[in-house]
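hi! just following up on the protien thing from before. the input was this:
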Amino acid sequence: MAAPTPAPPSPSRRTFLARLSLPERNYLADALRTETVGGVILLAAAIAALVWANTFGSSYASVSGFHFGPESLGLNLSVAHWAADGLLAIFFFVAGVELKRELVAGELRDPKAAALPVVAALCGMAVPAVVYALVNVVGGGSTDGWAVPTATDIAFALAVLAVIGTSLPNALRAFLLTLAVVDDLFAILIIAVFFTEKIDFMALIGAFVGLAVFYLLLRRNVRGWYIYVPLALVIWGLMYNSGIHATIAGVAMGLMLRCTRRDGETHSPGEHIEHLIRPLSAGVAVPLFALFSAGVSLSGGALADVFTRPETLGVVLGLVVGKTVGIFGGTWLATRFTKAELNKDLAWADVFAVATLAGIGFTVSLLIGELAFAGDEGMINEIKAAVLLGSLTAAVLAGVLLKFRVRTYRALHEAEELDEDEDGVPDIYEQDDPEYHLRMAAIHEKKAAEHRRLAQLAGAARSKPDGPA
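and the predicted 3d structure came back as:
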């Protein structure tokens, strides 16, 4: 009888939420450290805005509405307008650099690896929009705010993690960050496509010329902030006057930076500039935007009306339910179609908790709310209240879900960060290095010798006769 033909070997399956490479782990640690601090400042700014608006509302309104800037250049804007169109351009510049880096050196450079976070982010934007639209079609509300619950605020999400003290494994943090980067890209496209009413083509052509000059200077390796900062301001001003939201200029310039390293470089130009600008974005630009955008007047039943108006109810349900279902469902389906295997140290409950955390849609949701209902201050105030309530609800739910697995996360995080030989590289990344095992054997022998010496000293002390009575 002939031997049975052996079955062909099954193709290797990609691991979802696998351990990051060492360069990615180091980049992530540096980026999230800044974002976490910025998120705490953002949280403080949002609370300050609420207190200010509800205790000294007239002064808050007068400061937010104070206009300054050159009228001849079409830039005589209010403080709140400068924060939304000017300071957020810095935030979107950093988002552009992050996206470029992810595309050429990060998680999105491999199309197969990029499929999961891209599908998850797309579903995490589409489902909230559908939830909002359904609520408003059934309830007879306005569908203009469909895009409000589609955004994720990574800084606020990381601030929540810092407050609840959850040591998420690096793979989950990277997944959350990649989701937010892709989310930012599509939010930018939504702003550019759906919230541009009139276009001044002369100003737009001028902005494109400025971007072309910016690109050529970068390619010729021209250096000097005194060249790029004035040019960036000119591009921003032209983009603003073109009728397209000015933050698009920040994204475009961020995408032009080189984010791959050449021989002899420890950091690419994009990584270097991002390292310099990120603290300004996370610690100044975004908190100031929050200060002049999150000042919701809670008088007049603004919170009570959230659950009675279809527009505001759609925002809350979109953030809390739509984001969670969209990201978790999209991720689960993508793993099934790509035959990816979940990291054996994690569970689908962890993905669900991160999906819930992504329902914190503070910064960009507030911006889109202002654009969607421009001219209707009452509705804008109620939409902002809905964004705050939805984000707070998502934060509380995510905190509860993450607490259930906090011991598992802490053990995984400690294993990822353990550096017994104190060489600056976590031991888990050196386990295949023969020299690492020699160093560890020497360390263990040294510790054993120290324990033997202490045991001998203790034995000698016990056997020593007592002194004279």
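The chain is about 70% helix and 0% strand.
Confidence is low (pLDDT under 50) at residues 1-11.
cheers
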